[in-house]
Amino acid sequence: MASPQSPASSASSGSSRSFNQNRPQTLEDLVNHFVASKRSLNTQTVLWRANEIVNTARELLEENAVLAAKNASIRNIVDEQVDALEAVRRGIDVVEAEVQAEFKQILHDVDTAFAGLQSTLAVLRDTPIEAVLQPPGTPQKHLFDFIDSATVTNLKDSLRACIDRYNEVRSGLNDSNDAFDTALDNLHSSIDNVPNTPATASTPTPIPSLYHDLEGHAKEAAQAFQSLVRHYDLCVTALRHTEGGSAAATQATGDAPVPSSDDFSAPPEPMTEEERQEMLTVLVKDAAEVEDVVSEIRERGSEMTFLLSHVETHITHLRNEDTALNSILRMISNIAAEVKSHIATSRSFHASWLEDTRPTLLTGIEEWESQREFYERFDLAYAELLVEIASRRRRHDKAKRKAEEAHKELERLRIDDERAREHFTVAQGDFLPLDIWPGLRDPPRKYEVRAVGFSRNDDDAEAPEPEDSGALAQSIPQLGRNVVERALTRVKRRM
C-alpha cells in the first residue's frame, strides 16, 4: 500500500493471496475489494486499545522508578544486617565445627579399627578347625570358638556409651542454639523467597525498553491503519467511477453508513479512462495486501498486550519485593534482640570433648588395633600349625620308610647268616663235638626296627613305651594337600 510496511508486514505480504492484475476488474471484483476494505477498518478498535496500553505503561514507568530505588536501598540494609548476624553465628560455630571435625575423623578411625577387627573375627569365624585335629565325635569348631569375645563386646559397649554422652552434650548445645538457628533459617528462607525482580547489570529494569517498544508498535499500527483508510477511500472512488457501483456497494453493505468523507450519492469528479485504469491498478495491488496489513495491526496489538503484561508483571514483582523486604526488616530486629543468649553454651561442650570423649575414643582405637593384631597372629599361628603338622607327617613318613628299609636289610642279613651257618654245619658238623662251643648250633640273632611311642600324663612328661607304627602315625594327622597349600598361602601372604 501507500504507507511503508514494517519488515514483519513485508515478510507476510509475500504469503498473502494474489490477485490477477492483468485481467479487467469487474463490478463484482470492485465490490469485493470495497467490502474487504470496509471490514478491515474494524481494526480501529485495536488502535483504541493501543492508546490505553501506552497511557497505562507511562504511569507504570513512573512507579517503577520509585519502587526500584526504594527496594535497592532496603536490600543494602538487609545485607549489612544479615552479615552482622552471620558473624555472630560463625563465632558460635567455630568451637563446634572444630570439635565436630575432629570427632568425625576420630570416629572414622574408630570405625576403621573396628571394621578391621570385625574383618579379622570374620576370618576366625570362617576358619574351621580340621576334623583330624579334634577327637572323634567332636562338633565342628572354628578358630572363633577359642577366643574371648566378651572383651570385644565390652569395649564396643564402652565406646558406644562414650559416643552417647557426646551426643547428649552436643544435643544440649543444639538446644541452646536452636532458637537462633531457626530464626536465621527463617530469615534466609524469607530472603530467598523475596521476589527477585528480573534485572541485569546493564539493564536494571526492562520497563523503559518495553515502553519504547510499545510506542513503536502503536505508531506502526496507526500508520498501517491509515493505509487501510486510504485504500478504503480508493475503493469508494473506483465504485463511483463505475456504472452501478454505488448501488452495488450499498446493497453489499446492507445500507450501512460509510465512514468516509465521500458520498456515493455525490457526483464523482471527472476522470479519464487512463486515470481510471491507473487507479484500478493501484487498487488491485493494495487489495492484495489488505489481509496482511490487518494481520500486522492485530499482531502489533497482541504484541502490545503481551508487552504490557511484562510491564505489569515487573511492577508486581517490585511491589511484592517491597512488601517482603519490609517484613524482613522486622524479622532482623527481633533476631538481634535475642543474640546474646546463644553464645556461652559452647564452653561446656568443648570441655566435655577434651576431658571425656576424645581420650576415651583414642584409647578405644588403640585397643581395637591391639586386639586385631593379636587375633591376626592367632590366625597366622593356626596356619603355621597346619604347615607344621604336614612337615611332621612328612618327617614321620620318611623315618618310617627308613625303618622299613633297615628292617628289610636286617632280615636279609639274618637270612644270609642262617644260610651260612647251615652250610657250615653241613660241611663241618660231623667233625666237631657240640661241647666245643656252646653256641655252635645257635640260630642267628634276630633284630627288629619298631616305633617307640609316648604317653600323655597330667604333667606332660613323655614316657617312652612300645607302640606300633600305625598308632604312632595316627598321632600325626594326615592333612589334605589343598589344606596345606591354603595354609602356606596364608602364611606367605602375611610374612
UniProtKB/TrEMBL annotation:
Its main location: cytoplasm. Residues 459-468 have a biased composition (Acidic residues). Residues 1-18 have a biased composition (Low complexity). GO terms for molecular function: molecular adaptor activity; protein kinase activator activity. Keywords: Autophagy, Coiled coil, Cytoplasm, Membrane. One of its GO terms (biological process) is autophagy of mitochondrion. Belongs to the ATG17 family. Autophagy-specific protein that functions in response to autophagy-inducing signals as a scaffold to recruit other ATG proteins to organize preautophagosomal structure (PAS) formation. Modulates the timing and magnitude of the autophagy response, such as the size of the sequestering vesicles. Plays particularly a role in pexophagy and nucleophagy. This is Autophagy-related protein 17. It comes from Lophiostoma macrostomum CBS 122681.
